[in-house]
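User: I've been trying to design a sequence by hand for this structure and keep getting stuck. Would you show me what you'd pick, starting by listing the structure so we're on the same page?

Assistant: Good idea, let's start from the same input. This is the structure you sent:
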C-alpha cells in the first residue's frame, strides 16, 4: 500500500499541485525527488524543469511529523493526480510507486552551510530585468533573416541573454526566469510601501551560497544551481 501524506492545510496542497502542474507542463514525463526526515514537519519536493538548467525546490508543511524517513523519486504527474486539496485532514497526497531517477535526482544541493550573498536587486528590479531580457530576445529573433531563423541560432541568443548575471551577484538571469515561470516570484502590484521587516525575520527573496551552489529563496520555493567555474560540493544520494 502506497504511503499517505497529510498536509498542514489545503493551501499547502494547492501550492504543491500548482508546482507539479508547472513541471508537467514543461515535461509530461517529469519526475520529482521527495525527501522528508523522520520526526520532521516538512516534505521537500525537488524538480528540474527542462531548458532552465536549475533545480526547483518546493517545501510542503505536513500535518504531523513522519515516523520514518521518506526519500524516493516518483512521477510528478502521478503525484499531481493524487493530491487532494480538501479541507482539514483531507489535504494530502498518496506517494506513487518509485521510478528510475533521472541523473539530476542523485546530485542535490547541500542541506546546510548556506550563507547570505549580497548584491541581489529587489523584486521590482528583478521583474524589470526579466522583462527587458524577454523583449531583447523577441527583438533579436524578429531581426534574424529567414535563412538564419533556426533553432540553433535562437538557442545561441537565448544562452547569451539568460547567462547574464543579475545585479552584483553570480546569479544568472535564467535562474530568476525559472523562479518566475514556476510561480516562485509573484508580481509586485501594490504601490503602498511595504511594512518594515521584523527583526530576525527572513527576507522575502534572498540569495545564498554553499560550496559550489547558489540558491535563490523566495516565500514560495527555491531555485538552486551550480556556481560558474566548478562543480563544488555535490551530494550523491541513492535514488
Amino acid at each position: 500500500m502506497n504511503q499517505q501524506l497529510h498536509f498542514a492545510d489545503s493551501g499547502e496542497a494547492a501550492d504543491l499541485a500548482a508546482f507539479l502542474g508547472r513541471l508537467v507542463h514543461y515535461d509530461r514525463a517529469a519526475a520529482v525527488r521527495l525527501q522528508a526526515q523522520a520526526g520532521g514537519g516538512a516534505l521537500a519536493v525537488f524538480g528540474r524543469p527542462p531548458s532552465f538548467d536549475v533545480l526547483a525546490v518546493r517545501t510542503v508543511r505536513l500535518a504531523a511529523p513522519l515516523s520514518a524517513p521518506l526519500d524516493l523519486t516518483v512521477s510528478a504527474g502521478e503525484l499531481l493526480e493524487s493530491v487532494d486539496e480538501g479541507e482539514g485532514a483531507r489535504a494530502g497526497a498518496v506517494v506513487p510507486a518509485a521510478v528510475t531517477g533521472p541523473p539530476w535526482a542523485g546530485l542535490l544541493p547541500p542541506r546546510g552551510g548556506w550563507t547570505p550573498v549580497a548584491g541581489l536587486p529587489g523584486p521590482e528590479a528583478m521583474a524589470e530585468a526579466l522583462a527587458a531580457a524577454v523583449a531583447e530576445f523577441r527583438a533579436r529573433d524578429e531581426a534574424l533573416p529567414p535563412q538564419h531563423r533556426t533553432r540553433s541560432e535562437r538557442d545561441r541568443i537565448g544562452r547569451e541573454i539568460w547567462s547574464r548575471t543579475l545585479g552584483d551577484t553570480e546569479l544568472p538571469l535564467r535562474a530568476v526566469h525559472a523562479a518566475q515561470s514556476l510561480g516562485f516570484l509573484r508580481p509586485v502590484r501594490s504601490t503602498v510601501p511595504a511594512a518594515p521587516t521584523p527583526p530576525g525575520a527572513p527576507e522575502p527573496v534572498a540569495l545564498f551560497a554553499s560550496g559550489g551552489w547558489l540558491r535563490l529563496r523566495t516565500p514560495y520555493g527555491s531555485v538552486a544551481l551550480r556556481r560558474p567555474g566548478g562543480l563544488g560540493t555535490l551530494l550523491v544520494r541513492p535514488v
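That's my pick for every position. To get oriented when you compare it with your attempt: The CA atoms of residues 19 and 55 lie 13 Å apart. The helical segments are 10-26, 76-82, 123-142, 151-162, 173-181.
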